[in-house]
Specification:
By secondary structure, this protein is of the alpha+beta class. The protein is 39% helix and 18% strand. Helix 1 crosses helix 4. The longest helix is centred in the middle third of the chain and has 24 residues.
Length: 142
Amino acid sequence: MSLIVGKDTRPELAVRSLLHKMGFRFRLHLKGLPGRADIVLPKYKTAIFVNGCFWHRHSACKDGRIPKSRVQFWERKLAANVRRDCETLKQLERLGLRALTLWECEIEKNLPAVRRKLHKQLRVTRPQKASEKIRDNTYTQV
């Protein structure tokens, strides 16, 4: 598992490129926020997670299934990932940030739909007030 890449994956790069083309500016992998979101748009108070279907058990995808070998190991490991994801989303919500999860399969199969999803999410999220900032890798209310 040491060969598993956690940053700069092909789906993540596709989303970053798409956001940039749409005119959005963002930060990557902020350490001060819960869960280390792949992409953070501080102005829109939004964190974007680009999840792999296997590692985060995407229920709508065939890749979200448990392998047939070492079933108990994989069930525990992947269930822990899903629990951690849920807790991270709750923590971000408590901080007043919106979280958007994009799945690897939807990015690879239908990028125009991902573009619409991003546009819809970020259009309804108003830019933040000057009194609320994400600065120096931490979220603070001034």
